[in-house]
Amino acid sequence: MAAHIVIDKVSKVFDGDGRRMVALQDITLEIPRGQFVCLLGPSGCGKSTLLNAVAGFAPPTSGTVVADGVPVTGPGPERGMVFQEYALFPWMTVEQNVGFGLEIKGMARAQIAARVAELLKLLSLEDFAKRYPKDLSGGMRQRVAIARVLALDSPILLMDEPFGALDALTRRNLQDELLRLWAELKKTVIFVTHSIEEAIYLADRIVVMTYRPGTIKRDMLVELPRLRDPAAPEFNALKRELGLMVMEEQQRHHDAEIKAAAVD
Ligand SMILES: Nc1ncnc2c1ncn2[C@@H]1O[C@H](COP(=O)(O)OP(=O)(O)OP(=O)(O)O)[C@@H](O)[C@H]1O
Predict the structure, then answer these.
(1) pTM (two decimals)
(2) Is the CB of residue 142 less than 8 Å from the CB of residue 166?
(3) 5-78+154-263: which CATH topology?
């Protein structure tokens, strides 16, 4: 069966201030339907750039992305995106935020109401339907952002550090919730994180990226049974292995910054 997402020789070059920066170089990845993939690497290694290329927000300089059998030329309904910053409309209530995409699609009012109610229940948001985003905690806002994306029923979920701004407890809570939804709804997920523990906790597959140019340093399957125990020896062994890889890239980032500062 064809892969659900095919990233073929994707490169991205940014030109600015007379400097040419290769953010991604020849990234090739085939992601089967239903797989939970984490893109892992230190800041600046191109994780968001790659995710944005799959989302269709910023086309690659060269290479192609095919998602759900369709070449990506822009954002599309088969790919839903959740950002780190809760991209909610502050003037809309929770239920209006969740229903917004359905309204745009032209769904009938009664149908929207039913679907929104179902989603609020799925994410334990029923009691918050009439609240505004400003009156919610960070974790609750991110639940709303997830419900809003699920409303569109995209088979592909793209998540850019969605839990990065949350405290540890809320974060674990939402990770568990996401795993539950993923298992239930059978989405294909690409999840960007720089947290090694988060990647091991969530992913079927971890793709470690190098710092400038962004390439694939390691592509590994995580075969530990879920729910995973971060205190288990196998979890920690993997954490050490990945930690060394990420640290090498962090060091390259640091060295590059020192070099750039010396040139300026
Ligand atoms: N629009 C842009 N113009 C110029 N350079 C950019 C642009 N967007 C990203 N970059 C650069 O491309 C590189 C990769 O950035 P990207 O945001 O994809 O990394 P990342 O791994 O997601 O990092 P972070 O975790 O900090 O978001 C960085 O060096 C960044 O400065």
Answers:
(1) 0.95
(2) yes
(3) Rossmann fold (3.40.50)
